[in-house]
Write a structure and sequence with these properties.
The chain is built from 10 helices and no strands. With about 290 residues, it is an all-alpha fold. This is Sequence orphan.
């Protein structure tokens, strides 16, 4: 007669869940939600370029195949993917509990801040932006400017991915139909621009006028453009990390919830099968020899 302990051990070996398959499915959901969000908000981010607006209206197909749209979508899709997969791996490491949860740890900040800074170094993204507000002449980004742009991006990433889960704890829920997390995802990156804009303006000034000017000249250049630049950056960041962040989170939550529900159904089916097997064992053990 097979004991209950031995039976349970054999049954567990037979019914061990395919963890790698589950992880791949979740990573697929992470990537899909990130791409959906990035493609949805990229047109709004590209609106700072008048040529892009005209192209979107007159030649939408050419706009969506343009280098500008591709760069913007790639930057934000990559950032969302890093944020999403970080949450997935943290949940996986904890034993697959809370797969829909959003984390706010240093691992997420390290990953999400590294990607846009790497992309800035490898592409002409910030160089083109600086040229738009300078003398129109393209030149290499000097190290001080690059450092300021990196600091600017790190602040924005911190307030876009790490601060919202913490801020949501003190915000009222269901404000204008939004959850506290969604509200925080819009407010935090917008408010951050009042802190990061001076870094942005100083970086642009160093790029366009060189490093020989004094502190007074730098301060005047930054203060003269501070308010309008802060508001302009809010208009750019809110679609990118505010609305985009909410859309990414909503898509990811829906996909992960679907995966989680299917896994629970499978577990219930396994439990039912297990009970049936036990009943069969009892009938067999209690039958005639």
């Amino acid at each position: 007669m097979q004991s209950d302990t031995a039976y349970a051990a054999v049954h567990k070996r037979k019914q061990r869940p395919p963890q790698n398959a589950r992880l791949l499915e979740r990573i697929g959901a992470d990537i899909a939600s990130a791409v959906i969000a990035a493609v949805a908000v990229a047109p709004a981010i590209c609106m700072i370029d008048k040529d892009s607006i005209a192209q979107l209206v007159t030649k939408p197909q050419a706009f969506f195949l343009s280098r500008t749209f591709g760069l913007v979508a790639m930057v934000y899709a990559g950032t969302y993917i890093v944020a999403n997969t970080t949450d997935t791996f943290i949940a996986y490491k904890k034993g697959n509990e809370g797969i829909t949860e959003v984390t706010a740890g240093t691992a997420k900040f390290a990953g999400t801040s590294r990607y846009p800074n790497w992309f800035t170094a490898k592409s002409s993204f910030d160089r083109n932006f600086a040229r738009m507000f300078g003398n129109g002449i393209s030149k290499p980004i000097p190290l001080p400017t690059y450092a300021l742009f990196c600091a600017r991006d790190c602040l924005t990433i911190l307030f876009s991915f790490n601060i919202p889960p913490v801020l949501s704890q003190v915000l009222p829920d269901n404000v204008g139909g939004l959850s506290s997390l969604s509200t925080a995802q819009v407010l935090a990156p917008a408010g951050c621009q009042f802190l990061s804009t001076p870094l942005h303006l100083l970086g642009l000034d160093l790029y366009n006028r060189g490093a020989k000017l004094g502190v007074k000249d730098r301060f005047q250049a930054v203060s003269a453009n501070y308010l309008k630049s802060s508001l302009a950056r809010i208009c750019r960041i809110v679609p990118a990390f505010g609305i985009g962040g909410v859309l990414n989170s909503k898509c990811r939550y829906g996909m992960m919830k679907n995966i989680e529900d299917r896994e629970k159904e499978k577990e219930k089916e396994k439990e039912k099968e297990k009970e049936k097997e036990k009943e069969k064992e009892k009938l067999f053990d209690g039958g005639p020899t």
